[in-house]
C-alpha cells in the first residue's frame, strides 16, 4: 500500500496485522452477504482495536484500508436498518453487531476518509431520513447525531448534504437530552448559513454540558471525555460563538475561565491554545464581554506572553487578534456603540493615538476576504492607473499582521469593504472593518457576491450606504468609473507629495518622493503604466531587426489562445498542459499586471495553477517583460 511507504518496519508489521484482522472479520460476510455471518474472530473487536491505536501514519494507513472495503458500509446499512426496525435482537450475534455499530461511530471521530465515504455513499442521507420520521428513541438519535456531527466537522463536502436537513437538526436541538442538543447544535454550527445564526442559539443546559465536557477532557491524560476531544469542543464553541447571544451566554456561564486555563496550562497543545485565543477574540466582539475580559489582567498577560514567545504563527495571530479587539475595536451593533474603546493603561487606544499624533493619512485601503483576491487585484490596478495610492495586503504584510493592518487603516483616506458571506464570517475581516468604523474612516462598500444581504455586524456597519456591485466582470467595468468619481481626490498620489509616510513597507503605498521626482522631471502620471515604466518608452539599440525582440509593442487584447500559445512556445515555454488551453492575450496581460502588483503571489500561482516548472516561470517572466 502507498500509505505504508514512510513507515518503520515495526509500524508496517502492525499495519499488516490489523489489515489481516479486517480481512478475517469480513470473510464470512463476503460469502453470504448476511448479518448472521458477521463475527469477530476469537472475540477480538478489530474495529475497537483500530480506534484505540495511537494517532499517526500507521493508524491512517489501516483506516484507509478499512474504508476501501465496500462491505463495511453494507454491514453498517444492514445493521442500522435492523436497529431502526428494532429486530436486531433476533440475531444470535446481536452483541457483535452492537459492538460493530458503536465502533464505526467512534471511528468517524478519527478518520476523514470514513466521514467522506459516509457522505459519498448516501449513509448520511439514510440517517437523516430516519431521524426525520420522529419515531426514533434517544439512543438511536444520539448515535445518528454523533456520526452526522463528526462527518460535518471533519469533511466540508458533507455540509452541503446536511444543508437539506437543517430543520431536522433544529428539531433535535430542542431535545431534553443535553448530549443530543450538543451534537445537533455543533453540527448546525458547521452548516447553517450565517444569515441563519439564530438557529444555533444555545440554551443553558446544553452549554453547561459542553463546558463541563471541555473541563473534563482537559483533566484526562488523552484530553478526551465522553467521545469529545478538548480541541473539537474548543473549535465547536468558536463556531457557536458566531451567534451574539451565544457570546454572552458563554461568558455568563464561565467560558472565559476555561479558555484562560487552557492558555496558561503547560499541558495544553498548540492547537488548543490557538482555538482558546480565537475564542477570546470571538467573544470580545461583544462590548459587554470586552469590558469583562479587559478586567482580567492574568488573561491579558497570558495572551501577551504567548504572542511574544510562541514560534507558531497561527497562535501568534490569534493572540494578536484577541488583544487588538480587546484594546482597540469598538463594537458596531451593540448597545455600547457610543463608548470610546478602552485601553489597558486606562487611556485611549494606543493605536488610535498614532493617527491623532499626526501620522499620514492618504491611501485607499482594500479590505477583502482571500476568495475575492483576484478580482480586487484588478480593482487595485485600475485605481492605481487612475492615480490613486492603494493599499492591499497581497505581499505587503511585514511582521505582525494585525499591526500592519492597524497601520493601514489608520493611514487610509477611504476603506473599500468587499462584502460577501466569507467576509462576514472571517474574524480578521470583522476586526479590520470594525476598526475602520472605530476610527470613523470613510467606508465605501463593494458587493462581491450576488444576492448577498449584509446582516448583523456587517449590516450595521454598512447602514444605508450605497454599494457598488462587482461580482461579475461586466458589473466591475461598469462600476469602476462611478467608484473613481465617488473617491474624487481622496487617496490621490498628488496629495501625498507634501509628506512622506513613516513606513512605506507597511502601508503598501507607492513612494511619494519618486512620484514627485517624476513630476519635476516632466513625466506626467498618466504616462506611467502599472509596471513603473513609461508608456511611450521605445526599444533601445541600433534599430536592427535582431534587436526587435528586446521590447515589443503589441495589442494583447487581440490575441486568441492559438496566438498566445505560439508566442509562449517561441520563448521555449511548454504549453502542452491543459491549464494553458484558456490562456489568451487578455490572460497574459492580466498575468503581467499581477506580476508587477504582487510578484510573490503571481509566481506562486504560475507554479501551482499553471503547473510551470522554475525554468518555464523564468522564461515567461522574461518574455512578459519584453512586451
Automatic annotation (TrEMBL):
InterPro entries, per the entry: ARM-like (IPR011989), ARM-type_fold (IPR016024), TIR_dom (IPR000157), Toll_tir_struct_dom_sf (IPR035897)
SUPFAM superfamilies: ARM repeat (SSF48371), Toll/Interleukin receptor TIR domain (SSF52200)
GO biological process terms, semicolon-separated: signal transduction
Ranges annotated as spanning the membrane: none
One Pfam family of this chain: TIR_2
Region ranges (Disordered): 495-556
Recorded superkingdom: Eukaryota
Annotated TIR domain residues: 364-454
Name the record gives this protein: TIR domain-containing protein
Amino acid at each position: 500500500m502507498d500509505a505504508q511507504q514512510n513507515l518503520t518496519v515495526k509500524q508496517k508489521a502492525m499495519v499488516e496485522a490489523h489489515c489481516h484482522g479486517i480481512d478475517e472479520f469480513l470473510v464470512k460476510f463476503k460469502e453470504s452477504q448476511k448479518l448472521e455471518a458477521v463475527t469477530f474472530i476469537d472475540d477480538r473487536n478489530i474495529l475497537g482495536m483500530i480506534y484505540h491505536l495511537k494517532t499517526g501514519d500507521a493508524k491512517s494507513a489501516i483506516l484507509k484500508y478499512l474504508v476501501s472495503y465496500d462491505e463495511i458500509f453494507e454491514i453498517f446499512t444492514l445493521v442500522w436498518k435492523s436497529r431502526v426496525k428494532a429486530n436486531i435482537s433476533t440475531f444470535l450475534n446481536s452483541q457483535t453487531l452492537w459492538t460493530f455499530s458503536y465502533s464505526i461511530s467512534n471511528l468517524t471521530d478519527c478518520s476523514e476518509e470514513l466521514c467522506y465515504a459516509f457522505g459519498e455513499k448516501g449513509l448520511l442521507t439514510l440517517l437523516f431520513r430516519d431521524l426525520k420520521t420522529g419515531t426514533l428513541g434517544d439512543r438511536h438519535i444520539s448515535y445518528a447525531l454523533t456520526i452526522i456531527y463528526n462527518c460535518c466537522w471533519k469533511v466540508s463536502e458533507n455540509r452541503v448534504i446536511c444543508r437539506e436537513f437543517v430543520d431536522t437538526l433544529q428539531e433535535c436541538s430542542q431535545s431534553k437530552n443535553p448530549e443530543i442538543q450538543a451534537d445537533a447544535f455543533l453540527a448546525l454550527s458547521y452548516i447553517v448559513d450565517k444569515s441563519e445564526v439564530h438557529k444555533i442559539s444555545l440554551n443553558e443546559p446544553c452549554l453547561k454540558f459542553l463546558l463541563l465536557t471541555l473541563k473534563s477532557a482537559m483533566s484526562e491524560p488523552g484530553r478526551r471525555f465522553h467521545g469529545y476531544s478538548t480541541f473539537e469542543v474548543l473549535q465547536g464553541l468558536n463556531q457557536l460563538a458566531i451567534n451574539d447571544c451565544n457570546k454572552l451566554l458563554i461568558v455568563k456561564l464561565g467560558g472565559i475561565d476555561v479558555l484562560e486555563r487552557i492558555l496558561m496550562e503547560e499541558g495544553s497543545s498548540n492547537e488548543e491554545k490557538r482555538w482558546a485565543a480565537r475564542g477570546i477574540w470571538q467573544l470580545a466582539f461583544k462590548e459587554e464581554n470586552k469590558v469583562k475580559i479587559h478586567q482580567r489582567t492574568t488573561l491579558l498577560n497570558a495572551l501577551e506572553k504567548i504572542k511574544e514567545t510562541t514560534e507558531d504563527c497561527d497562535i501568534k495571530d490569534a493572540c494578536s487578534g484577541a488583544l487588538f479587539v480587546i484594546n482597540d475595536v469598538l463594537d458596531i451593533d451593540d448597545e455600547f456603540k457610543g463608548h470610546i474603546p478602552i485601553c489597558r493603561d486606562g487611556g485611549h487606544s494606543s493605536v488610535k493615538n498614532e493617527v491623532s499624533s499626526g501620522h499620514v493619512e492618504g491611501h485607499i485601503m482594500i479590505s477583502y476576504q482571500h476568495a475575492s483576491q483576484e478580482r480586487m487585484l484588478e480593482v487595485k490596478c485600475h485605481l492605481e492607473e487612475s492615480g490613486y495610492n492603494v493599499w492591499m495586503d497581497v505581499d505587503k504584510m511585514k511582521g505582525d499582521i494585525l499591526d500592519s493592518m492597524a497601520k493601514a487603516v489608520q493611514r487610509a483616506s477611504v476603506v473599500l469593504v468587499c462584502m460577501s458571506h466569507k467576509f462576514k464570517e472571517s474574524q480578521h475581516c470583522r476586526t479590520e472593518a470594525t476598526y475602520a468604523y472605530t476610527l470613523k474612516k470613510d467606508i465605501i462598500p463593494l458587493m462581491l457576491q450576488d444576492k448577498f444581504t449584509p446582516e448583523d455586524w456587517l449590516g450595521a456597519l454598512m447602514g444605508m450606504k450605497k454599494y457598488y456591485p462587482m461580482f461579475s466582470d461586466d458589473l466591475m467595468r461598469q462600476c469602476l468609473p462611478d467608484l473613481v468619481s465617488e473617491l474624487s481626490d481622496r487617496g490621490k498620489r498628488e496629495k501625498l507629495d507634501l509628506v512622506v509616510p513613516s513606513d512605506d513597507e507597511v502601508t503598501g503605498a507607492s513612494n511619494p518622493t519618486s512620484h514627485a521626482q517624476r513630476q519635476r522631471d516632466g513625466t506626467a502620471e498618466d504616462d506611467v503604466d502599472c509596471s513603473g515604466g513609461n508608456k511611450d518608452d521605445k526599444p533601445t539599440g541600433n534599430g536592427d531587426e535582431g534587436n526587435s525582440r528586446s521590447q515589443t509593442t503589441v495589442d494583447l487584447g487581440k490575441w486568441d489562445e492559438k496566438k498566445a500559445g505560439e508566442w509562449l512556445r517561441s520563448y521555449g515555454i511548454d504549453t502542452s498542459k491543459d491549464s494553458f488551453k484558456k490562456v489568451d492575450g487578455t490572460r497574459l496581460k492580466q498575468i503581467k499586471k499581477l506580476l508587477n502588483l504582487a510578484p510573490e503571489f503571481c509566481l506562486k500561482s504560475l507554479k501551482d495553477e499553471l503547473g510551470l516548472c522554475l525554468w518555464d516561470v523564468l522564461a515567461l517572466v522574461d518574455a512578459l517583460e519584453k512586451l
